[in-house]
Amino acid sequence: MVEAKTSGMKDRPLSPHLQIYRPTLTMMMSIVHRITGVALYFGMLLLVWWLIAAAAGPNAYASVQWFMETLLGRLILFGYTWALIHHMLGGIRHLVWDMGYGFGPAEREWLTVATLAGSIGLTIVLWFVGYLAMGGIR
Amino acid sequence: MSDHTPGSMRTPLSRVRHLGSARAGTRHFWHQRLTSVANIPLSIAVVVIIMGLLGRNHAAVVQILGSMLVAITMLLFIVTSVYHMWLGMQVVIEDYVHDELTKFVTLMANTFFSFAVGFAAIFAILKLSFGL
Fold first, then answer.
1. ipTM score here?
2. B42 touches chain A (CB under 8 A)
3. Model-level pTM?
4. Is there a contact between A51 and B65 if contact means CB atoms under 8 Å apart?
5. Which of A40, A52, A129 is nearest residue B120 as measured by Cβ atoms?
6. Alpha carbon distance A70, B16 (integer Å)
7. Nearest CB to B61: which of A61, A134, A135?
8. What's the mean per-residue pLDDT of chain B?
9. What pLDDT digit, counting tens, does each position of B47-69 carry?
10. Out of A40, A92, A134, closest to residue B40 by CB
11. Cβ contacts of B125 on chain A, cutoff 8 Å
12. Partner A contacted by B51 (CB < 8 A)
C-alpha cells in the first residue's frame, strides 16, 4: 500500500507554477500587491512606535523624530508611503475586478498601468507637499 | 434530495448552510473586502492627519492626536487595518507554509502579533485622548 502510494505520488502531474509563465504586467503587479501588503504588515510597527512614543512623552517622541530625519528613516518612510498608496490603488483595482468589471485585455492593462503610475505619482506629490509644509528639505 | 450528487460525502444540511469544508463559508473573503473598502477613506484621512503633524512639536502632536475626531479616526483606522492585515497574512502563510507544525505556529504568531500591535496602538491613542 505504502509503495503504491509513493510511486503514485511521483507520477502525478504537477500544476505549473510561476516560473513556467512568461511574466506579464498584471502578474507582476499581483505579486507586488502581496509584497506591499506584507511590508505594510510590518510597517504597522512603525506607526505603533510613533503613537506609543507620542503617548509616552517628549523624550520618546524626540527619538522617533530624530530617527525619521535620518537617511534610513526617510527611506523607510518613503517606501512606507509608496507601499500604502500602491496597496490602496491595487486594492481598488481588485475591488473593480471583484465587481466583474475591467477584465478586457485593454482594460486590465490600463488599470494596471494606472495603479503603478498613480502610486508613484501620488507618493512624489505627497512628499513634495510634505516638504512644503515643513518649509523645505531637512 | 434530488440535488444530492451521487458519491458526494456532503450531507444535504451542509449544502444548505453553504459553509463549505472549512465551516466558515466566504466570511474570510468578505471581511477582507469589507475592511479594504473601509480602509480607503480611513487611510486617506490618516495620511492627511500625519501630513498635518509634520514638523510640529510634541505638545501640538499630543493635542491634535488626542482631539476627539482625530482619535476616533485613528482608532477606526487601527481596527480595520489590523483586522485586514491579520486576514491577509493568514492567506500568505496558508499559501507558502506547508509544514503542518510551522504553519500552525506561524498562524498563531500572526494572531498574537496582530492583537499586540492593535492593542498597543489603541492604548496609545486612548492615553493621548484621556491624558492618563
1. 0.85
2. no
3. 0.86
4. yes
5. A52
6. 59
7. A61
8. 91
9. 999 999 988 999 999 999 999 99
10. A92
11. 51, 55
12. yes
Give contacts of B 66-125 with A, CB under 8 A: 74, 81-82, 85, 88-89, 92, 117, 120-121, 123-125
Q: What nine digits make up the cell of A129?
A: 507637499
Give pairs for B87-91: CB < 8 Å, separation 24+: B87/B28, B87/B31, B87/B32, B87/B35, B88/A37, B88/A38, B88/A41, B88/B32, B89/A38, B89/A41, B89/B114, B90/B28, B91/B28, B91/B32
Handedness of CA A58, A60, A65, A70 (dihedral sign): positive
pLDDT tens, position by position, A57-107: 999 999 999 999 999 999 999 999 999 999 999 999 999 999 999 999 899
| Residues B104, B98: Cα–Cα separation, whole Å | 10
Q: B36 in contact with A at a CB cutoff of 8 Å? A: yes
Q: Dihedral angle at the C-alpha atoms of B85, B90, B96, B102, nearest 10 degrees?
A: 120
Among the listed residues B80, B74, B86, the one whose alpha carbon sits nearest the alpha carbon of residue B126: B74
Among all chains, which residue has been given the C-alpha cell 495620511? Answer: B47
